[in-house]
Amino acid sequence: MILYDIIIIGGGPIGLACALEAESAGLSYLIIEKGTIVNSLYNYPLYMTFFSTAEKLEIADVPFISTAQKPGRREALEYYQGIARHRNINIHLYENVIGVIKKEHFDIKTTKAEYGARNVIIATGFYDIPNEMKMPGEHLSKVKHYYTEPYLYVGQKIVVIGSSNSAVDAALETYRKGAEVTMIIRSPDISKSVKYWVKPDIENRIKEGSIDAYFNAELLEISEYSVIFKEENQEIRTIPNDFVLAMTGYLPDFDFLKSCGIILEGNCLKPVYNDATMETNVPGLYLAGVVCGGKDTHLWFIENSRIHARKIIDNICTLLRS
Hints:
By secondary structure, the protein is an alpha/beta fold. 24% of the residues lie in helices and 24% in strands. The strands form 5 sheets. Strands 1, 2, 3, 4, 5, 6 and 19 form a 7-stranded mixed β-sheet that branches. Strand 17 (264-265) and strand 18 form a beta hairpin. Helix 1 runs parallel beside helix 8 (307-321). It starts with a strand and ends with a helix.
């Protein structure tokens, strides 16, 4: 069995950045990715536009050329997958990591094989596990935790849960394709984090009555043809419904992190790691990217977690020299 210097779990932008840093340092590495390259980006809404400009999404000093000020999903896929192809990144796709055990080195078991590594980097993101609402009817087929495009919802009565970027994009796009859209929002207003060029659009559509919105409201139950929710004044309402788009966010795989021996702290389940090196409480086991934030998935983005790759590789190189 080959003993790699580093195995990287997750082939997203930050996982790729870690691989390229390892290569530059002369370290052997392997990325193990359960889907395609930058799998989370592939599953984003088809017409999504990034908040960040192209240069803030760059990795390994490879220029991200975009004709738009802010690139979209397709441009990002071309950029990151293009890097993987042209730099011949050592990556195994459609292979899921089952367990990571620390002995003299790390034993990594996947759905296809077993590997050994002196160090492991977990860069798995958070897009695979929906943050469930825990209510009757949530698992009906009409309830969608992922939104890709509006054409499925033409002429349908849609309830959108949430007021973040994903919820606002879904509400606007389905409305413009002929859906009857109602937003049910726990907070008193549209999230301040919504893209600044989109926020006035959704607020104006709500103000003019094109999209119904209930603020300080709570969804209580979903049935086959309706939903029940509580308004701000505590009145219980039932409205007809064909689909529920539950844009309630996503969570890291906390069970996997715990199975690796990583300590999770507080209500946010934030993993324990050293800010300077990204090393967890398990020696030789590192975290990179948005997985570092626990439930606070808005803490880390591509643009501010790219630095994790260099921190990790610098620390591993320092330890190898000592």
